[in-house]
Amino acid sequence: MDAQSRGQSDGIDPADQWVLNPQTGNYELRLDHSEGQSPAAPSGSAPTGGRRRTAAPESDPATPDPATPPGPRSGGRSRNGGSGAQRAEVPGQRSRRAGKGAAATDAAATAPGRRKRKPKKSGGKKALVWTGGVMGFVLVGGSIAGYLAYEHFNGNIATIDVEGAGSGGFKKDQPVNILVIGTDKRTGAGNEGYGDKGSVGHADTTLLFHVSKDRSNATVLSIPRDLITDIPECETKTDSGTTVIPGTQQVRFNTSLGQDERDPGCTMRTVKELTGITVDHFMMADFNAVKTLSTAVGGVEVCVEKDIDDPKSHLKLDKGKTVIDGEQALAFVRTRHAFGDESDLTRIQTQQQFLSSMIRTMKSGDTLTSPSKLFKLAEAATKALTVDTGIGSINKLSDLAQELSKVPAKNITFTTLPVLDNPAEVVKATVVVNEAKAKPLFAMMQNDVSLTEVEAKEKADKKAAASKQEELLKGDKADPADVRVDVFNGGGPQGSAQETLNWLQNSEGVLKSSNKGNAPANVSKTTLEYAPNQADQARALAEMMGLPASGLKPGTEDAVGLEAMTLTLGADFKGAGVPITGPAKTPEGVQKVGADKQVCSK
User: Fold this and answer.
1) What is the distance between the alpha carbons of residues 159 and 171, in angstroms, rounded to a whole number?
2) Which residues share a beta bridge with 210?
């Protein structure tokens, strides 16, 4: 009996094998029937509050195949612990891959160096150790409470090595940036009629998920696929080695994936160049993800302001609230002609509505208290998911999930990259960045500023900080030509002092500035030290750099002669011309919606 069919030999659904452990008060999935068990946990019910429109009849993709273990995906991706061939598993053994792309065999199972199964803990035979979430927005939606089959789910996950494209890994005491990518590739059963028939798998839907350092809030930035931008040079790794793919200028953003064999690492690099935000990890899924995940949670409630019958996407909905899953859920997030001006920008807002509702469903007690739903959700998510190798295991995904699931739905804000119609086109088909609105939005995310007021205390702290800033900045400001400053790099990227010097002299007119190289010691925050008689210069420089009040360090003795102020760039320095602290509020006119709000599509 293999790892996937373990516990199913009698036709029993694994979701029905959850039992209550009276010692811990938790439900557990018992894989050994030799001991007596408590009654199984009851299944949860589907979401209420609206009509339900089910998908077309098809086999349930969220239910594991009892006969066939998960196998490796093609295209340079790997499966963790997946076996390409079915075999009988001797009790006490774990299946493992004999090599990259090779099927596990009985010989491999007994090969020297094979990892041994850990001894069972006394007092219980737990083979289930994961308490994490499931993917991107679903990870934030809620951590899965209970123990899940580690070997089984670990074998579902596909990975791609994009080393060098991101930060190298998230840290628990720092903000987290996850890039969630939905491709238009026609993979998976029943998806032959979707997307572009010849698509190599472009970035059809892209969301940058920024979670704050204190995990109190998150901002989800949708990037339009038809955005005209530059795609930088990037490296991709295949079985035959590393390939450098040349960059391209002024092309659609969605070609950052798939085109010229670009992998998700190329999309990560494109997002970094576009936003100035370094992505920690990526998560990618195809059309099946929406179908299987929406089915696994028992359906997702959506709202529309009119009856919908779209022959192109095959979406059919009655006016009002409806619970959808499967094919209808996919039709809802894909339709371009059912709502608004029928543009991709309107479709983005429809997708945000759907994801917000899924987050609310994930966090509902109806889901979190249903072992059956949790099992199916984890099964659907891990099968639909392709991630970078940095989080390519259940343990690592669990660590990430536990961090992201701390964010309450009311503090998750969806927004869209501000854009304008492409002025180079007569017939409008693409868009360009609206720099005036996008730069402040990027600065907010770079500086971990929430688009949502989180707590009353935080609001009071911001008000106090703003008051202090106003006091320090009151008074005359020196002319840029009279500002004298020495620039040190105390924690910014290599070359930051020279980059800042060039910006000050060429863009701001601060000609009396000097590059002093590296600071004596690294600092976490950018600071400006100045004498009392240099206050007007400090006010001018602080305004140019968006330096917060906490970064201004006035001295007690006046400067003498040509003595300059000291600017030390810290680890919070994001680049010359990028404000050290972001705006206090979202720029006017930027679209946003909270994940706790239900919005009816028009």
Assistant:
1) 20
2) 177, 219
Distance CA 431, CA 428 (A): 8
User: Which two tokens mark 405?
Assistant: 């699931």
Cα distances from 130 to residues 30, 80, 466, in angstroms, run: 14, 15, 44
Biggest alpha carbon distance in the chain? Answer: 90
Per-residue tokens: 176: 């987290």
Q: How far is CA 421 from CA 135, 440, 582, in A?
A: 33, 20, 26
Instruction: Name the packing angle between helices 344-363 and 326-334 (round to 10°).
Output: 140
Q: Specify the pLDDT at position 468.
A: 57
Integer CA distances (angstroms), 416 to 207, 335, 413, 506, in order: 9, 18, 10, 32
For every residue of 363-409, DSSP letters joined together read HSHHHHT-HHHHHHHHHHHHHH-EEEGGG-SHHHHHHHHHHHTTS-G
Burial code of 115-153, b = ≥16 C-beta within 10 A, e = fewer?
Answer: eeeeeeeeeeebbbebbbbbbbbbbbbbbbebbbbbbbb
Burial class (CB in 10 A: 0-12, 13-18, 19+), 562: exposed
Quick: pLDDT tens for 345-369.
999 999 999 999 988 888 776 766 7
For residues 89 and 83, what is the distance between their CA atoms, to the nearest angstrom?
A: 12
HSE-CB at 35 with a 13 A cutoff on CA atoms is 14
Give the separation between CA 298 and CA 43, rounded to whole angstroms: 11
| CB-based contacts of 82, cutoff 8 Å, min separation 6 | 69, 70, 71, 72, 97, 155, 156
Side chain identity at 470, as an amino acid letter?
E
Helix (H, G, I), strand (E, B) or coil at 253: helix
Q: Rounded to whole angstroms, how far apart are CA atoms 229 and 274?
A: 8
**Residue 92: is its pLDDT beyond 60?**
no
The model's pLDDT over 292-346, given as tens digits with 9 standing for 90+, comes to 889 988 999 999 999 999 998 889 999 999 999 999 999 999 898 899 888 889 9
| Placement of tokens 């919908």 in the chain | 308
Compute CA distances 295 → 79, 181, 193, whole Å.
24, 20, 20
Burial of 505 (0-12, 13-18, 19+ CB in 10 A): middle
Q: What are phi and psi of 304, to 5 degrees?
A: -130, 150
Averaged pLDDT, 223-233 = 96
CB-based contact 510:482 (threshold 8 Å): no
pLDDT score recorded for residue 290: 87
Q: Is the dihedral of CA 586, 447, 284, 260 positive or negative?
A: positive
456-473 helix and 535-545 helix, angle to the nearest 10 degrees: 130
Q: Percentage of the chain with pLDDT > 70?
A: 68
Higher local confidence (pLDDT), 143 or 198: 198
| Pair of tokens at residue 136 | 């991107």
Query: Tokens 């009988």 correspond to what residue?
Result: 88
Give the pair of three-digit tokens for residue 432.
Answer: 């360009």
pLDDT higher than 50, residue 10: no
β-bridge mates for residue 281, sequence order: 178
Distance (Å, rounded) from C-alpha 570 to C-alpha 545?
Answer: 13
Report pTM: 0.66
> For 468-506, what is each residue's pLDDT tens digit?
555 665 678 899 999 999 999 999 889 999 999 999 999
